Amino acid sequence: MDHPRTADSVDRDLSTWLEQMADVHPEVEAARQRIGRLARLFHRTLEQVAAAERLSVSDWEALSVVVRARGRCTPTELASALQLTSGTVSTRLNRLVAAGLVEVVEDADGRSRPVTVTEEGHRRWQAATAARTRAERELFAVLSPARTDDLNRLLRTLLHHYETTLGEAPRHDVTDRSSAQSP
Questions:
Q1: What is the pLDDT confidence band of residue 106, given thresholds at 50, 70 and 90?
Q2: Total-model pTM
Q3: Choosing a second label site near 113 at 20 to 30 A (CA), which of 35, 106, 127, 159?
Q4: Could you tell me which CATH class the domain 25-165 is placed in?
């Protein structure tokens, strides 16, 4: 169900920006602005969904790493996946342990202290993830399946070019171990 062309916030602001900026291609600037605004709106959706499950987005991301790592993850793997310091990871893990969403287990080597997701942690992660996908599906309902396919082809081309130039984009919720085990 495609909607007729309607003005968005970028259309309303673009001429003001272009008056102030030299050597800017209007269509490229408009696309960049739209991608940025959509990213911020997707994040707002994550905040709303996480709050409904009594999670912060950052704790949900940490929980996602553990779940995607087959339910068990070391703090080092978590820090690497989320690109965080060990102190920040420790704070997040403490919150997740206090909430009963993960638990610390002893590792065979006695040095690392991996965490495993609890039943309650998995239930809340599943509920938040299902709500997120429903919300995104509703947002994308303004596009027909064919237009969604077109959008994905265009974004794939752009992302591939950027990743070829700048390196692969960070993946916030996958450890090296979990990506190697994914089917």
A1: confident
A2: 0.79
A3: 127
A4: mainly alpha
Domain ranges of the chain: 25-165
Strands 72-73 and 102-104, bridge-based pairing = unpaired
Query: Rounded to whole angstroms, how far apart are CA atoms 17 and 26?
Result: 9
Q: Is the dihedral of CA 134, 140, 143, 145 positive or negative?
A: negative
CB 78 within 8 A of CB 62: yes
| Helices within 21-56 (DSSP H only) | 26-52
Q: pLDDT, tens digit, for every residue of 73-87?
A: 999 999 999 989 999
For 51-180, list the strands marked E by DSSP: 72-73, 102-104, 115-117
Count of all residues that appear for the chain in the document: 183
Euclidean distance between the first and final Cα of the chain, in Å?
33
**Average pLDDT across the chain, whole number:** 88
Backbone φ, ψ for residue 103 (5° rounding): -135, 150
**Helix (H) or strand (E) run with residue 88 in it:** helix 86-98
Query: For the chain, what is the radius of gyration of the CA atoms?
Result: 20
Pairwise CA distance, residues 80 & 62, whole Å = 11
Cβ neighbours of 96 (radius 10 Å): 23
Could you tell me the two tokens for 21? 């900026």
What does the alpha-carbon distance between residue 95 and residue 170 come to, in Å, rounded to a whole number? Answer: 24
